[in-house]
Specification:
binds phosphoenolpyruvate, alpha/beta, 3 domains, binds magnesium ion, TIM Barrel, Enzyme I, Chain A, domain 2, 8-stranded mixed sheet, 24 helices, Glucose Oxidase, domain 1
Length: about 575
């Protein structure tokens, strides 16, 4: 079988060789050696190759992600040159006449255990560095390839079990033509990152890493969710044609870049973008975004060894606000947890991380982390049109606590003589059913709602957004979702507030007519979805769609909803 079906995660067609991103088998045998000098030479060579790779990765991280993200690699380089670690390995080879693999492993394990048990965060971070670095050195001793996504310098399609958001952030889109993974869904964070990098992706293929080898030719069809392994010439030709059609289509869409988003009958809605870093703002501009509806700040905290400082954050927020001018920028406070981990916080592993200690729950307990972020945001607020949004709000009490801390920090800054904008709207993500159900009570206290359907759907249907086995239950058009969304919009409007949506559903061509019918004010989506959405909305009559509202809300299944929308909108 040369074709796999997965979930279309990011539009476009990619045709290139497979690059497997997986930690290789690093098992080794313990051996006695006679020529200990030769063994020490092998170690030195493996250390040298590792150093030169890390230098390159560091340089890449510095130019593409900034100095702070490069620091982690400086720490790794220090480990590789540290005589306190390297000399004991060499001594062990010499005195015990053992192979370099064994000496490296024994010595590294000893230091890791020693540092991990220390009551000192700095030393525990060093343990993590040693762990990371020894894997790379071990791979070079064993002569196996260690994957370096940042160093890819030829056109490839990355295949992997899954990509962490920080793996994805390292991919150089000049060379990485696309990616495909075994697990994940359209709303897993690797898929979201693929869309912001504008790289075609198919996730959730179940077993691409078993079906394809490194070097196999692949076609990734991110439009229809297909992956073809070692395609025939005919298949390549037909996909090249599809690729060209897609490029032409993009040029058509681009004509609407500077046009407002108005329905056929003259209603205006706001089409804004989801971003993860200040670098993404360029894509928002190129795709005609009318603002930023969700700035996921987690990426500032990821791919590093420690929390970002107040100044680092201030610079990132200021950069986004300045680039966006007077357009609105909704910044979400830290939403760590679920599939976004911060190893340096050393949080205990949980049975159900999506239902666990995360986002606002963590911020309210670790208010040192929260206050630093809020101060950075408040300081940056004078540079643009900032709105602050709290994630994963389950109860009114959480919102009140979070807002009280924000006001305290505002007062502190004012007392310190630092200017803070006076009209920052403060809103919440609605991604937990309890909040959607009592949206009326929330609407009296918040300035806006942004419906996070990526999570709202998984919590409402009890279907993990990352798990392709239950992806059939992950139903954006389920009438339960439509009724919750409707409830939130009505609640907002009853109090004169606005309601947006920043889950992926906001950019979906079947959902868009429904959301127009329900009266959504702001649609926030991957930047690349903005122009197709604008094109679609200009052809829809909001009045006509609104006349179907009660019918849609009364339907019994997602299929019924979808068929109805397809029929009414010729899709
Ligand atoms: C936008 C959302 O947040 P995230 O995808 O970051 O969880 C959501 O849950 O819909
Ligand atoms: Mg969410």
């Amino acid at each position: 079988m040369n074709q796999l079906t997965g979930i279309a995660a990011s539009n476009g067609i990619a045709i290139a060789k497979a690059y497997k991103l997986a930690i290789p088998d690093l098992s080794f045998s313990n051996e006695k050696v006679e020529d200990t000098n030769a063994e020490k030479d092998r170690l030195t060579k493996a250390l040298d190759i590792s150093k030169s790779e890390l230098e390159k990765i560091k340089e890449h991280a510095r130019t593409s992600l900034g100095d702070e993200h490069a620091e982690i690699f400086s720490a790794h380089l220090l480990v590789l040159s540290d005589p306190e670690l390297i000399n004991p390995i060499k001594d062990k080879i010499e005195t015990d006449s053992v192979n370099a693999e064994f000496a490296l492993d024994e010595t590294a394990q000893m230091f890791i255990q020693m540092f991990e048990t220390m009551d000192n965060e700095y030393m525990r971070e060093r343990a993590a560095d040693i762990k990371d670095v020894t894997k790379r050195v071990m791979a070079h001793l064993l002569g196996v390839n260690f994957p370096n996504p940042a160093l890819i310098d030829e056109e490839v399609i990355v295949i992997a079990e899954d990509l962490t958001p920080s793996d994805t952030a390292q991919l150089n889109k000049q060379f990485v033509q696309g990616f495909t993974t075994n697990i994940g869904g359209r709303t897993s964070h690797s898929a979201i990152m693929a869309r912001s990098l504008e790289i075609p992706a198919v996730v959730g293929t179940k077993n691409i890493t078993e079906q394809a080898k490194a070097g196999d030719m692949l076609i990734v069809d991110g439009i229809d969710g297909k992956v073809i392994i070692n395609p025939t010439e005919d298949e390549i030709a037909s996909y090249q044609e599809k690729q060209q059609q897609f490029e032409q289509q993009k040029q058509e869409w681009a004509k609407l870049k500077d046009e407002p988003t108005v329905s056929k009958d003259g209603s205006h809605v706001e089409l804004v973008a989801n971003i993860g870093t200040p670098n993404d703002v360029e894509g928002v501009m190129n795709n005609g975004g009318e603002g930023v509806g969700l700035y996921r700040t987690e990426f500032l905290y990821m791919g590093k060894n420690e929390l970002p400082t107040e100044d680092e954050q201030y610079n990132a927020y200021k950069s986004v606000l300045e680039q966006m001018g007077d357009k609105p920028v909704v910044v979400r406070t830290l939403d760590i947890g679920g599939d976004k981990e911060l190893p340096y916080l050393e949080l205990p592993k949980e049975m159900n991380p999506f239902l666990g200690y995360r986002a606002i729950r963590l911020c309210l307990e670790r208010d040192d982390i929260f206050r630093t972020q809020l101060r950075a945001l408040l300081r940056a607020s004078v540079y643009g049109n900032l709105k602050i949004m709290f994630p994963m709000i389950a109860t009114l009490d959480e919102f009140r606590q979070a807002k009280a801390i924000l006001l305290e920090e505002k007062a502190n800054l004012t007392n310190e003589g630092i200017k803070v904008s006076d009209d920052i709207e403060v809103g919440i993500m609605v991604e937990i059913p309890s909040t959607a159900v009592i949206a009326r009570q929330f609407a009296k206290e918040v300035d806006f709602f942004s419906i996070g359907t990526n999570d709202l759907i998984q919590y409402t249907l009890a279907a993990d957004r990352m798990n392709e086995r239950v992806s059939y239950l992950y139903q954006p058009y389920h009438p339960a979702i439509l009724n919750l969304v409707h409830n939130v919009i009505e609640a907002a409007h009853a109090e004169g507030k606005w309601a947006g949506m920043c889950g992926e559903m906001a950019g979906d061509s079947i959902a868009i007519p429904i959301l127009l019918a329900l009266g959504l004010d702001e649609f926030s989506m991957s930047a690349t979805s903005i122009l197709p959405a604008r094109t679609q909305i200009r052809d829809l009559s909001k009045k006509e769609l609104a006349s179907y509202k009660d019918q849609l809300l009364g339907m019994s299944t997602a299929d019924e909803v979808e068929a109805f929308v397809r029929e009414k909108t010729n899709q």
